[in-house]
Amino acid sequence: MGQLASAHPFLDGNGRTILLIYMELCFRTRFAVDWSKTSKDDYLNALSDEIRNPFKGHLDSYLKPFVIDISNRDEWPGMIGGIKGLDGLDNIERSPSSEHRAIGHAAVETLIRTQ
Q1: pLDDT at 5
Q2: pLDDT (0 to 100) of residue 62
Q3: Hey, which residues does 67 pair with through a beta bridge?
Q4: What is the per-residue pLDDT for 109?
Q5: pLDDT at 22
């Protein structure tokens, strides 16, 4: 994952794109990251370290303890849904509306169906 970050080193937006690409690559090799157990701040720190000092394994080292087996694409939306702050709403004082959450899940479902 760190190599993806160093190839296109931007935090805003790029991190979300990298996550989706990375999750697809992981699925193809039958594993996933249990994002619900990760910390957005720790992830961004590891991503920043990887961008500043590429190919040292900062991001991979951070994610390794959260690796789980996955064998069914139906599990994929749940994995993505476990990523705290993916939609950027974690910095908003009000809670997101159910309509906004539904839009986010619909986008994920569309991405999965195109595979």
Answers
A1: 67
A2: 94
A3: 33
A4: 53
A5: 81
Distance (Å, rounded) from C-alpha 74 to C-alpha 91? 29
pLDDT above 90 coverage of the chain, percent? 9
Give CA separation, 13 vs 18, 28, 88, in Å. Answer: 9, 23, 10
Q: Which residue has the higher pLDDT, 23 or 95?
A: 23
Higher pLDDT, 87 or 48: 48
User: Residue 43 in contact with residue 90, Cβ under 8 Å?
Assistant: no
Contact 86, 16 (CB under 8 A): yes
Residues near 69 by beta carbon (within 8 Å), at least 6 away in sequence = 30, 31, 32
**Residue 67: enclosing H or E segment and its boundaries?**
strand 67-69
Do 32 and 73 contact (CB within 8 A), yes or no? no
Domain edges within the chain: 2-113
The end-to-end CA distance of the chain, in Å, is: 20
Burial-class residue 13 by CB neighbours within 10 Å (0-12, 13-18, 19+). exposed
- Whether 38 and 13 have beta carbons less than 8 Å apart is answered as no
Number of Cβ atoms within 10 Å of the Cβ of 55:
9
